[in-house]
Amino acid sequence: MKRLIAVAACLLTVVLAGCQTDATDGVVRTNEPSKGDVTSFGDAFDGLKTVSDVEYHASDQAVAEAKNQFRAENYGNAGALFFKATQLSPNDGNAWMGLAACSDRIHRFDLADRAYARAFKLVGPTAEYYNNVGYSHLLRGKLQDARSNFLKAYELAPNDPTVANNLKLLSSSVQNIER
Question: What is the model's pTM?
Answer without folding.
Answer: 0.65
